[in-house]
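Below is how a single chain appears once it has passed through the pipeline. First comes the sequence as given, then the structure the pipeline wrote out for it. We keep one example in the README because the format questions we get most often are answered faster by looking than by reading.
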Amino acid sequence: MDVSALYTSNPHDDGIAAKASVLNADNCQSPDAILQLIRFILDHNVFTFNNQFFIQTHGTAMGTKFAPQYANIFMHRFEQDLFIAQDLQPMLYTRYIDDIFFLWTHGEQSLKQFYDDINKFHPSIRLTMDYSPELVAFLNTRISIKDGHLSTSLYRNPTDNLTMLHFSSFHPKHVKEAIPYGQALCLHRICSDQEDRNRHLQTLKDALIRTGYGARLIDRQFRRATATNRTDHLRRQTWDTADSVPVVVQYFPRAEKLQHLLRSLQHVIDEDEHLAKAIPTPPLLAFKQPHNLKQTIVRSKLVRVLTTPG
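Resulting structure:
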């Protein structure tokens, strides 16, 4: 199922009530201040159209930073109330923001009744549904029943033409190496059948070669991705959140050598008692995007205007 226009469909009062229940459950120290800030954002969704100004009075703007979390909390409250009112429950129910996948084992007629009940449950929330006893697509995954078990494969939208960052683009080397690795790892995780995975890997390799990537680089990253245990990637993972001091610089081709310089100077930091506590590990080098062509032109015009006499 898919929630139609989720961001713009949840009423302000219902969304804030859902957020308030989460804050109370988490024993938040200042829930009223947070709720006032949310209300301020919701009441000041200003946009322009045809040189006229409007205020969005329902839902939240899709570009607002807190919109995904706000929508998730609203749907969490919606689902809790919904399932309390339902006698028949899905065998499995999972959701990613507004995309829902569930397994129904109570027959087709009761499924249609369940779907009808959902669309009547809230005055603003409407869902679309696609169901099958054999095969459905959820996000980028095609899920089917094979020999009594769920089988998964890659699903690509018909409009997907496998457009990726060109290898000649002005990006760090590790970014270009990460693209074939990340794409291959995604296939390794999604495809439950190895032969099916290999067919998709070949299609991906052909697309990468057309985009300027070398065959040796592709093969090396593919081997690296598929050598891992697929089962491990299907489990929830936790990441090391050690505090590293970031050194942020604007990217340029020779900037990658700065990481080696930072590591080589760590002994200087370690010799100072206070710095050693503040920076126990080598700083993390991070790149920010340089100005693109449009930004450079606008900036040069602005400088010209500001520096022109009179």
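Residues 246-302 form one domain.

See the next section for the split statistics.
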